[in-house]
Amino acid sequence: MNGTLLLRIATAVILLTHSVFGMFNGGINDFGNLYLNQIGFAPFGVFLAWSIKLSHIIAAILLLINKYVKPAGFITIFILIMGIALVHFQEGWFVVGGGRNGVEYNFLLICVLLAIMYPNGFYKNKSE
């Protein structure tokens, strides 16, 4: 069993729940229309919002089947960094408690994705 299985399952659950609910409650369209279009992505805000959420679903599936983990991770990390830059940074660090809607959640997901992508670290010792 792969040592990243638990992290891959947990991350997939987070990516799926963060995406699927928005598909059924109008959240993705609202994010596209009411936020992305308003900050300069018009007329592509809804397309971009759906692309982001569909990429999360694809990444979740790839994490679960342990295939193409690095490309899925890089794309998801890019999206999370853009989320920090465009949405969360201005709100500070805390998601709840010391603030609201901050960067800590995205930061943790980025670290978890990196741990999944590089389970043996970034550098391999040639003597191993």
Which residues sit in consecutive blocks of at least 5 with pLDDT less than 50? none
Rounded mean pLDDT score: 94
- Fraction of residues in β-strands: under 5%
Instruction: State the helical fraction.
Output: over 70%
Q: Tally the helices.
A: 5
Please state the overall shape, judged from the principal axes of the Cα atoms.
globular
Kindly name the structural category. Answer: mainly alpha
What is the helix/strand order? HHHHH
Give the N-to-C terminal Cα separation. 20 Å
Protein name: Oxidoreductase
Subcellular location: Membrane
Keywords: Membrane, Transmembrane, Transmembrane helix
Organism: Flavobacterium ginsengiterrae
Describe this structure in words.
This protein is an all-alpha fold and 128 residues long. It is 71% helix and 0% strand. Helix 2 crosses helix 3 and helix 4 packs antiparallel against helix 5. It is globular.
Task: Write a short abstract of this structure.
The protein is mainly alpha-helical. It has helices at 5-25, 27-41, 45-65, 69-88, 104-117.
Spell out the blueprint of helices and strands.
Layout: H1 5-25, H2 27-41, H3 45-65, H4 69-88, H5 104-117
Transmembrane segments: 5-24, 44-65, 72-90, 105-123
Membrane topology: Multi-pass membrane protein
Protein name: Oxidoreductase
